[in-house]
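In this supplementary section we document a worked example of the pipeline. Step one takes a protein sequence of length 510 as its only input; no multiple sequence alignment statistics are reported here. Step two produces a three-dimensional model, which step three serialises into structure tokens for compact storage. The input and output of this example are shown verbatim.
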Amino acid sequence: VSREGTPSCQTFTPSCQTILSLNLGEGQGSGRGSVSVCACLAMASGYRTRAGGGSPPNCTAPSSILGAALLVFLTFTGTRLLDQRLKQCDHRPSDPLINIYHPVGKHKRYGTLEGVFGKGKSWPEQGYGVDLSLRIYVYEDHEIPGLKKLMSGRDHSIDADSCSKGQWGTQVKIHRLLLRSKFRTFNKGEAQLFFVPSYVKCVRMKGGLNDKEINSTYIQVLQQMPEFRYSGGRDHVFVFPSGAGAHLFKDWVIYLNRSIFLTPEGDRTDKRGTSAFNTWKDIIIPGNVDDAISLIPSSMDAAILPLPLAERKYLANFLGRAQEKVGRLKLLELSKKFPDQLEAPTLAFSGVMKFSRREYFEHLRNAKFCLAPRGESSWTLRFYESFFVECVPVILSDQVELPFQNVLDYSQFSIKWPATHINEDFLQYLRSIPDREIERMLTYGRAVRCLWIYAPESEGCSAMTGILWELQRKVRLFHHSAETFWLHNGSFVNRDLVRREAWLPPFSVP
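The serialised model returned by step three reads:
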């Protein structure tokens, strides 16, 4: 289409168009749907036709044709070379998991980093640094003998999608997000960290492996990893998504005591005698919030729509099973004395005393404060869920650990109350907090809740963004172990002075 004062393809001679035209789908040299290189050159040079002045360039001149031909050749050759180079750079395997991002759907806009840190301030400027430049290698399930069993069971019948829900869903989501992350590398030599995928909590719950099999399979896997042997496991990352933490692997304290754990659990001393979490090497991650909360479209929109404070029926609620835990039993007793202020029904795993997900959220949003007492473990998913129905979370778990404490001030949007003082004074304290203070805390909570959602780091504010920054703080320039030695020329050897390149599995670990 010609514009006034701009030469069109028809301006130039048919011979030029026939020799050098870029077909756009409507027929070569037709003037419509093809653009002459001569025309493009003329336009690029700023040529304009004016009424009564100037004439089009002579595109049939030998010098014009040769110049245009050279331009086409260089453009075509350069494009092909660039395309081949890009293909060579993409070494992604044909793993079906890489084409699956879970969950499927578009994430709601729950807060922004500006909302967390203030306008003009980004996440890394507050507590982490100025540049996120990780290189993470993700082991493939077929790469290490035994690894696939930790992901799908002894007969490989357990599907990853079925493991992406519930409290242990983070083990699948983090793996899938790393598979698609721009920080993933396929070159072990340049990797700063190594991620070991495992869905072992889900596999165990579904009967895919028993405790003895889990223990022996983990050991088998570790014995096949030269990189684990080289660093003593210090640069290897494992996800333990449930309250049991690393205790799912009975001998973790022998084999994984130097590795990095991603876990929501900061304390299990009540049953295990020792906590698997080490604040100096491990990372607390958010629990797995129900996908129905964070995705568009959502069948739960009506159920999680926050109610105005004045319309909420209760001061506080606790919507969980008692589990014979002291703090939870105290809340149930307190609710019997003050049923109009504290909702704490007796719930069960199944039957009429079990809420559906919709019923659960409809009740959760009907109080100003959502109580999160300790259960089998120190953390509870209810803490994270409270942000999406907009009630102030009240932590009643003394040993709890919380994610991203380098950058989040939890006193601005939550309350932590001693579990030993769950009594009438506790309710009196909650009643004394004016609505304007509750609104202030809820406003801050709206800004930070995006950090509880497992979405790609490209979305900016997400749990994955926080985890990547935390992982970068664990990166070391140099690694070695008690079985690693080095020589004057920079080569690494084992105890028998065998060069690293010649190490063969199975390795003695730790």
